[in-house]
Amino acid sequence: MATTNAIDTINCIAAMHLQEQKTPRCINYFQRTTVVDESCRAAMFNWLCQISDALSLNRETVGLAMSLLDRYLSSCARSSDQILSDRSRFQLASITAYYIAVKINEPVELGLSMLVKLCRGCYESSAIVSMEQDILSALAWRISTPTPLDFMRYILAMIPSTEQSIVESAEQHLVNATKDSYFSTISPSIVGAACVSMAFKESSFVCISSEQAVFWNVVCNALELDTSKDFVDVQQQLGKVSSNPKHFANFGQSTSTLTKGSCANLRESCSSVSVNVSVASHGIML
């Protein structure tokens, strides 16, 4: 019999599924440009991960930032077209999306002065504020929408006695998915569920308990996974991505508070951004 916690969890999953259906799907916005490409997005993802680590912030905030960026560039707002025709502005949009994500997801504030310092003065605070308004306007201020991470967490909470190795494997698949824009065009519920499914399939714990199978079926029914071709395709793509060492990115450990070492680490991070310079080791970029 399902416990009260399990019922609450599946209700949350169903509610998020309903909410994502009301949110416009992202598109492959790279088809609209020859200036900004997948490597630019991947470079920004890597740099934002470095910033999160340097400031001892939560890496999941980077995932939220990439979601905001993808939704903004998929909105086809006039300002988003300008972003895709200028690598410097694409970089600014990515940084600003992270600035917004920190406001939503962190217990500490990333001030504008620190953000300008992180960018080595390449952008003024007024440019960041203006970009923030453009992003929020294009998204009609709908910034709190379900992400693949939200679904993955609830699904893992739903399935009892899940081994830690499976949780870590699912998290790694999610990192790889966040870095690749293909997955942004798929419903977050499908991406989150596919990460969990792949983790179980790849686990050395071959035998899934009958109780786990029951709860997985409940999840499949709630998210309509059994009739979703995308669910199959996403798992195949996750398998390809995870087998590519160039794509592999370790999520690592993170905390959600600033530490005394953050300022020292910040000095190293400041050298990461250099607009219109080719990719260098440990830095961007565009």
TrEMBL record:
One GO term (biological process): cell division
Keyword Amino-acid biosynthesis belongs to the record = no
Q: Which Gene3D superfamilies match?
A: Cyclin-like (1.10.472.10)
For this protein, the record's Pfam families field holds: Cyclin_N
Q: Which domain of life is it from?
A: Eukaryota
UniProt domain Cyclin-like: residue ranges: 46-137
List UniProt keywords, sorted A-Z.
Answer: Cell cycle, Cell division, Cyclin
The protein's matches in InterPro entries, at most eight in alphabetical order, are given as:
Cyclin, Cyclin-like_dom, Cyclin-like_sf, Cyclin_N, Cyclins_cyclin-box
Similarity comment text for this entry: Belongs to the cyclin family.
Name of the protein:
Cyclin-like domain-containing protein
